[in-house]
Fold this sequence. Notes:
By secondary structure, the protein is of the alpha+beta class. The chain contains 21 helices and 20 strands. The chain is globular and about 75 Å long.
Amino acid sequence: MMYPIAPRSFIACLAAGVAIAAGTALAAPAEQAPAPGGEPKVLRLAFSVAETTFDPAKIVDLYSRTITPHIFEGLYTYDHLARPAKIKPLTAAGMPEVSADFRTWTVKVRPGIYYASDPAFKGQRRELMAADYAYQFKRVVDPANKSPVVAGVLETKFIGLAALRDDALKNKKPFDYDKPIEGLKVLDRYTLQFNLEEPRPRLLETLAASDLFGAVAREVVEFYGDKIGEHPVGTGPFRVAQWRRSSFIALERNPEFREMLYDAEPAPGDAEGQAILARFKGRRLPMIDRVEISVIEENQPRWLSFLNAQIDALATSSGPLPLDFANVAMPGGKLAPNLAKRGIVGIRSVNSDTGFTYFNMEDAVVGGYTPERVALRRAIALGIDVEREIRLIRRGQAVVAHSIVVPHTTGYDPEFRSEMGLYDPARAKALLDLYGWVDRDGDGWREQPDGSPLTLEVATQPEQISRQFDEQWKKNLDALGIRTRFAVGKWPEQLKAARAGKLQLWMLGSSAASPDGSQSLARLYGPQAGSQNLSRFKLAEMDAIYEEMQRIPDGPRREELFRQAKLLATAYMPYKIHVHRISNDLLHPWVIGYRRPQFWNDWWHMVDVDVERRRKGN
C-alpha cells in the first residue's frame, strides 16, 4: 500500500481525509455536442506495470484488478462521488438483510441482468443468478486455482467452505462445486444467503469487491478451461476487445449492458461532487465506447505520451504521474503554468496506501524471531533514510509512515509515532554491535553472529525508478557495513516469487481496497502467509488480535486492538513501512467527470470524453 509540504498542514489533511486539488476534472463548461459521424469516444490510458490475468480467482495485483471490475460486477459497489466512501447496490435489488449477530446476510439479485454474449452460452442469453456469486467464492478456494486471496475468503468463515476445500486437498480429488454448503446458500434463483461461523460486521465491503468477487458464469469457466484468464465474460459495462499480453489491452462497450443511469450522492457541501452530479445525473452508462490501455513501464516514455496527447490521463495508482516529473508538472503542489494553458487538469491527493519493504520471516538470514534476528531487521529499518528517499526519489510526493495502517481507513491515527518512522543510523549500528553482527575480519563488512558471511539480497526491477531505489538501499546499507546484492526481475515474476517465499526482501507498494484498516493488518496475519502476508510473519498474539478485530464492530475496543497491532509490528519489524504516497493525477481537458477512487478501481464508465475538444487539442 504508498508515497515537503509543511508537515502540520499535511497531517491535518490526512486526518480530515482531504484531497488537495489543483483543479477539477469537470473541465469543459459546455455540454459536448455529439461526435461528428458518430466518432467513438475512446479513453486512452497507460499502466506502469503489466497485468497478469483476467481471471478474478487468480489475481491480486492492482493492474489486473483495475481491468476486472469493468467486466465483472459484485453485488454492491462504492458510490463514485460520495466522500467518505459509501456502499450501494450494484446487481443486488437492495441492501442486505443482516442478522443482529452479523452472522447471516441475505441478498436478493435484481432479475433481468444478463452476461455479455459468448460462445460458451451456445447462442442463448444467460441471466445473472444468485448461484453465480456462490460459484465465484468457491472458485477462489478451489485448490486447483491457487488463488492468492484464498486466505482472505477462508477467514471470512463461510460455514462449510473450508471443509469443502479440505476434502479436495486431503482426498486429492477435484473440488466439488455441486455440493451445497450452508455458508453459501442459494435460496432461489435470485436469493443468496451467507451464513458465517463468526460475526462479520463488515462483510458488505467484501461483497462490493467486483474485481475479485464479481459474478462468473460456470459455463464460461468450463468452456474455456485453463484459458479462462484470456476470456473474461461478465455482466459489466465493458468487454475485452483486444489483448496483447503485457503490452496492450482494449475494452469496448458491452452492447448488452443493461440500462444504468448516472447517479451518486456527494455530500451537500461537496461543491466538486455536486457539480459533477449536476452535469451527468441521468446519463446512460457507460458514457464512452472504448478504453485502450498501453503498458508503458518506463517513466519518461509514459510522461511524453501524455504530453503528446497519446494518452488522455496519468491517473490512479495503476498509471500515475511518474515521480520523476512530479515537480515538473505540479511544482509546489500546483499545476505548472504551461500545462494549465493547455487546459490540463491536475488533482493532488493523499493515498490510502503504503510503500514498504518486507523481510521474509522464513529466510535463514533476515527471518526468525530470536533477539539477534529481530535486531537485524530493526537495525536495517533504522538505517533507511526515508526522508532522503522522499526528497530525492519520490520528489517530495510522500510522507513518512509510522505504522502499517493507511490514511482514510479505520485505525489510522495521524498523531501515532513509532520507531517505524525513525532514521537513526547510530542506533542501528549499536543494535548490530550489541547482538553480534560485527566485522570480525576487518574488511569493513559485518558478519553474522556465528561468524558466517552476511550479504543481503534485495529483489528489484529493471526500470529506472527501481535503480534509484537500489542506489538508496546500497548507500544506506553500506553505511551500516552490510553487503548487498540485487536480484533483478520483472514485477509479475517478483510477485510470484514473493508469494512462494523465495525472496529475502523486496520493496513494493499496496493500496487499500476498503475503508477497513484491518485489511492492512492482514499482512501480519499468519494464515495469510503467501497471500497478503508476503513476509510470512506468524505470531499467535498478532493472530488473536486480528481475529478479534474481524468479529467486533468498530468502536473503542477495536481502536485499542489497532494500537496493539501497530506496536507488535514495530517490535518484530517483519515490514519496514516507508511512506504513504501523495498522488498527482493529470488529465487532458477532454476527459470529463473524473474523481479519483478511494478504495475501488472501476471508474472508466463514469467519465465522458469530448472528442471534438480532443481533435482541437485543447
